[in-house]
Amino acid sequence: MEDSRTEIGVVMNFETEVLIHYDKVWKTAFKMIGDKQNVDDLVQETFMKAFIAWSRFDPNRGATTFTWLIQIMKNMFLREIENHKNRPEMLELEDNLNFTERLSDNPIQSLKCRTGVMRIRNAINNLPKKLRDSVEWLAKGFSYEEIAEILNRPCGSVKSNIHIARDLLRKGLCNKR
Which CATH class is domain 2-77? Predict the structure, then answer.
């Protein structure tokens, strides 16, 4: 009997401490992915994993419940990307190339745009991971505060990383013209 009360307590605690973040986690996932069905799947899996791991969550280790959920979601998302290596980047790059083709009917201008997009993507990929992570989250539309929460870093560090990354990108892209 005692076990069932403990289990009920864990479920009720999970509901009051974790499920209150559902909308915010869903919105964060939507900014990352942009496809409702995939977002729904990712968020559902995130909360299932969180429920399974809830008894091991320790807020004294520095993470808030929300950042813990985002970390779970981010790890699942990154694992999925690793499992389908290059697919998201190729799709994103392909979308950018199609967009640049629509900008101009001039093949030379279109080629210049394509080359520029590829140079920028390569330059971002060559940034150190800490800088690249911040820039990629920013490019997906997240605020500095949201990026700090997702990456579990101080907001000042995120701002500094983005500033350094922009300088490196600017210098690297200007020198390779």
Answer: mainly alpha
